[in-house]
Input
Amino acid sequence: MVKGYWVPILHSHLPFVKHPQYDNFLEEHWLFEAITECYIPLLTRLKKLEDEGVEFKLTTSITPPLAEMLDDAHLMDKYSKFLNRQIELGEKEVARTSKDDPNFHNNALFYHHFFKETKEFFETVLEGNVLNGYRYFYDKGSLEVITCGATHGFLPLLCVNEKAVEVQIEVAIKAHQKHFNRSPKGIWLPECAYYDGLDRILNENGIEFFIVDSHALVYATPTALNGVYAPAFTPHGVAAFGRDGESSKQVWSSKEGYPGDVDYRDFYRDIGYDLDYEYIKDYINPDGPRVFTGYKYHRITGESEYKEAYDPYIAACRTQDHARDFHLKREKQLEHLSHYMDRTPMVTSPYDAELFGHWWFEGPEFLYNLFKEIDKHKVIKAITPLDYLNMYPSNQVLSPNPSSWGDQGYYDVWLNEGNSWIYRHLHEMADKMGEYAHNYRHTSDGNTVRILNQMLRELLLAQSSDWAFLVTTATATEYSTHRTKEHIYNFNELVDMINNNTINFELLEYLETKNSIFDFIDYKVFLD
Amino acid sequence: MRENTEHLIHQSIKDEKSYSSTTHAIDTIAQEIPQMDMKEYPIPSRYYKDRVTLLPVNQSKYYIYWEITDETLTARGIDLNTQELYFRIYNTKGMLFEFSSPFAVSEYFIKGVFENQKIYAKVGYMVEHTFQELFASQSVQTFSSQINLPAPDDEIWMRKGESWSQLLHSSIEHLEFSGSSAKYIKELERLRYLNKMSQSNESSSSHHQGGNNG
Output
């Protein structure tokens, strides 16, 4: 008998980064690393589950910028070159370690094989497009793909101009239709950030559910009577699923979480930093600074600097232990909850998809073993949010508390003394976009339309919450600040082209190539 | 029943503060290295438009930014060399906070606990100790950190595919809520009794008190 339901949800997102003017641009590697360590390993595990006849259900967002990048010929061509370079480094490493560093020879062989297998899966099974893998399972019904904001804009801070929020949602729906040939049923609100009234826009766009942090439901008006263990409807009839802290902590916590196990791969030790500069310089940043290469030969070992060699086999065995532990804890949790509820409880566990594989290298294998464990015991069942809503269509109505899943649970991460300067510009740009969309709503001039469409792209790209986040965490601060200013500047240059009736075609074409997100975009979406 | 609810709520937030999701995956993917040959992009320092905008940060912190144009200052006879602009935060009952600034274009972080209410800002200047309003910001719904259990009779339940407006439409057609979901809920609680009394709405049979659904 099923004691309860587990609703696993992954959030797959990266900001739109494309620099066609460079052959090798570090920030484009964010995508390449995520494809190699997260998306392809997940898809290979899902395929393995399917081949083994293991039943699974998983929900994942594929955000519009991520989908656009995965579908971008220029970026995918660079990704192929990235894989070739990784394999080339592997060949060098196999030769080097066999002679000079035998302690890590097996690690070099492991990575060389890993990158070759990735390349083969990418080119043959996925036919050079990672989205094909997601479409396959989406069409099969084992994967529910949901959308997000068009460029992951932090909606509560954009809603000063409500049209800006509506456009973030409407463009996201169109992008989902473009990439998956259907409308999304659910949305991962960027940063799980909710504000009062957002549900109207979601409802009007056919969205049936979204995910929030626990305090959005507990401190709702009124409080959710089942806590986060059942969804609640907003006044506009959209279901809110609350994050379960217990299952989140088991994976997220830096102290108690599984990824910190001593047998797992150490994230920080990397030959990009460890090996002689002359030897490694062709595989790190072309400008010179050392960066991660993905060749990481050590296991976590302990808290000290001393690290032992990583053993992928032992690490894979640990994922089986952790899958059993997670399963047992969910079983106990759901059994406990069922004593307090008049329906079968559910536990919603949302995670960043990139956690599984990048930060926690063994994460995809953990998920594979976990689904096997669930299928074997059949005491808990993995389902999608829609599955639960179909089983329990009647739910409490409440107004979720404005909140996010960021540190401290509110908007601090995206609005503080370090990044507040951004919002004045975002609001002004949104107002101006509405004004120009209205003024030129009847224009039939092709070049004016191109300018207006590119203005909207620049606005959307400037709105990405990633820039404000990275400024706060002091990671890629310079790049994030630069990107924000770039889009503000581009937007204003485009406005000037219209105002002065003088088109800088060279600049316009450059922007259309570089910031090429959403080829279907139509500035008229900004009209009331 | 009440004990069960309290237990579920407690369980829901017991781990809330025990970890943080500040470290998103992107934070580990991105690496801080010096940017080479990056073009500088100058951005406007002002937009020559009157504006005051209020944004919530958390339960006890709010952000306000503004621009007062030279035209407005001149028209009102405001000289910021000798005078200051005054900013006041209000809820529906009155003023909550006040500060002043000598700058026409600037920003400020307000510290104050204004939970679970609509607030907005006004900017103005003083004439003989009297506040003269220039203009106001949009209103924002603040956060809550309180458990707010409904009275047992005030629980509202709804079936998939419905929305509040459908529940209310047949009995109350004249209400305007100006976008506040919290207001909808309060109205729903009140109107539930009207619906019950009138029994005129077939759709009301699909929403009922909690505890028996599925």
